[in-house]
Amino acid sequence: MSSDTTTAQEALTFTDLGLSPKVLSAVTDAGYTKPTPIQAGAIPHALLGKDVLGIAQTGTGKTASFVLPMLTRLEKGRARARMPRTLILEPTRELAAQVEENFIKYGKNHKLNIALLIGGVSFDEQDKKLERGADVLIATPGRLLDHRERGKLLLNGVEILVIDEADRMLDMGFIPDIERICEMIPFTRQTLFFSATMPPEITKLTEKFLHAPVRVEVSRAASTATSITQRLVKSGSKPWEKRETLRNLMKAESDGLKNAIIFCNRKVEVSELFRSLLKHDFDAGALHGDMDQRARMQMLANFRDGKLRYLVASDVAARGLDIPDVSHVFNYDVPIHAEDYVHRIGRTGRAGRSGKSFTIATRSDTKYVDAIERLIGTKIEWHDGDLSTVAESAGEDAPRRGRGAPRRAGRKDEDRRDRSERKRDRHAKHDETPDAAREEQPVAEVADIAERRARKDAIRSENDRNKGSANRNEQRGDARPQRDHNRPARHRQEEDDATVGFGDDVPAFMRIVAKV
Fold first, then answer.
1. DSSP string, 135-197
2. Minimal CA–CA distance to 208: which of 171, 173, 182?
3. 140, part of any domain
4. What is the pLDDT of residue 167?
5. What is the DSSP letter of 338?
6. CA 235 to CA 78: how far, in whole Å?
7. How far apart (Å, rounded) are the C-alpha atoms in residues 226 and 349?
8. Which residues contact 287 (CB under 8 A, 6 or more apart)?
9. Ramachandran angles phi, psi of 271, nearest 5°
10. Do 356 and 207 fall within a single domain?
């Protein structure tokens, strides 16, 4: 975007964008007068009914850039039962609920029916809203398809489709669902497509479902806000070391820290870190995808209202959540996907405010840090020395069991170590055997072989004697079989049970005694 265009957009106000008086009144009541660059670039084209491809970093007002023109266009017409007029797809429940709040805030002068289809809520309540007719349908892909398959929803009346946080949709595996939904919607629809990053998979999707879109890119894809101070923090790789590093960092930043979101890669780490912070008297809450929907919304509300100072969260809180005044972001884990770093730190430094982000890195995180720096196009400074100054964690350096000490290794690790130790013991025992003893071993083996041969010869002689005795008995007419004491015990027991067999007509080959 040229500097002249940027200057012209900075001089624009909402009244210059072509919004309806009702929408302008609600925007003014909300305290806004000047649009953000993404809003100034996208709203005029959206009002004209054109497809829009919006690319902007998080915290730049993407939500209002499609909510405001949609409200203006929805002033004409009415919804029919089970046939929504517009559809907005969001990757998470929290984002969907947040978009609903925006429609309620900016659409207070409109009489629109808004339906929210997300998981964790009763189908019956959602069905009632659909039966009344929805002017605005906000949904996550999975729940939308559930209603469609139950026959409670028709999508052939959709006039405007919005796909928000498309790169997050890709990360969560929703792209096949998005493709299915797009095929259910009329070809003549208007599509508004927004994303912070544009990986190749998303580019292919836009080429397939957008028609001559107007590309509005207010910043380089995957860039971070200049208002955010970014730092890397070194740490040992043990969990107790990382927790200690985080606590020290939180204490050092306490003077300028209003509130903070602490991001973990996994849900189990969210729970463990949350309990650890509570144990150390930090005012913290937790948020991850396995929580009940009501608990998730309540936790977000408490954090937004200032009832919680710290929120330990998975990436469910990384995308688009509008908590405007977050002073700090701590990455307890370096994100595996570099794009997630952009979204995580985008929770601070919003709406022109300044913010700080700290990312705790271990030696094993080097490749992820390199990927992040390549993506954002800049080097991230180290807070207090880089990883070359971190000592390797060793058993002698680790603290004794107690508060803050690492837990014992899992049973599998212990079993593996035990097997290794036993193997080493066997080798050591062999190595410690005196030379004289090792020389005597072949002699002992020869003696053992000779003894086994002698035993076999004795058994063979006994078999021959038994065979001769059997022949003599047969000549005397004695049908009573001779018991072979050299046969296995199982066969002897079968003979004692007097099992009926061939009687006197036993074939000759069955009388041959097996060699041992």
1. SEEEE-HHHHHHHHHTT----TT--EEEE-SHHHHHHTT-HHHHHHHHHHS-TT-EEEEEES-
2. 182
3. yes
4. 85
5. H
6. 58
7. 8
8. 270, 296, 299, 300, 311, 312, 313, 314, 316, 317
9. -65, -45
10. no
Q: Looking at residue 470, what is its pLDDT?
A: 53
| Structure-block tokens of residue 385 | 């020395």
Tokens representing residue 285 in the block:
């809450």
pTM for this predicted structure: 0.61
Q: Dmax over Cα atoms in the chain, in whole Å?
A: 129
284: Cβ contacts below 8 Å, ≥ 6 apart: 262, 274, 277, 278, 308, 309, 310, 311, 312
Q: Which domain holds residue 339?
A: 228-410
Angle between helices 123-132 and 141-149 (to 10 degrees): 70
3-state secondary structure of 80: strand
DSSP for 433-475, please give it: S-HHHHHHHHHHHHHHHHHHHHHHHHHHHHHHHHHHHHHHHHH
Token pair recorded at residue 3: 């500097």
Mind listing the pLDDT tens digit for each residue in 364-412? 999 999 999 998 889 999 998 888 777 654 433 344 444 444 444 444 4
Distance between CA 58 and CA 195 in Å, rounded?
9
Locate 504 and state its tokens.
């006197």
d(C-alpha 424, C-alpha 180), whole Å: 59
Is residue 165 domain-resident?
Answer: yes
Q: Please report how many Cα atoms fall inside a 13 Å half-sphere around the Cα of residue 493, on the Cβ side.
A: 3
The answer to whether 278 touches 393, Cβ cutoff 8 Å, is: no
As given in the structure block, the two tokens for residue 112 are: 């629109």
Distances (CA, A) of 397 to 5, 242, 361, 385: 59, 15, 20, 20
pLDDT tens profile 433-463 = 444 344 344 444 444 555 566 666 666 666 6
Asked if 311 and 261 count as a contact pair (C-beta separation under 8 A), the reply is yes
Q: Report how many domains make up the chain.
A: 3
Beta strands 190-195; 52-55: pairing state: parallel
Q: Rg of the chain over CA atoms, in angstroms? A: 38
Indicate whether 446 belongs to any domain.
no
The answer to whether residue 223 sits within a structural domain is no
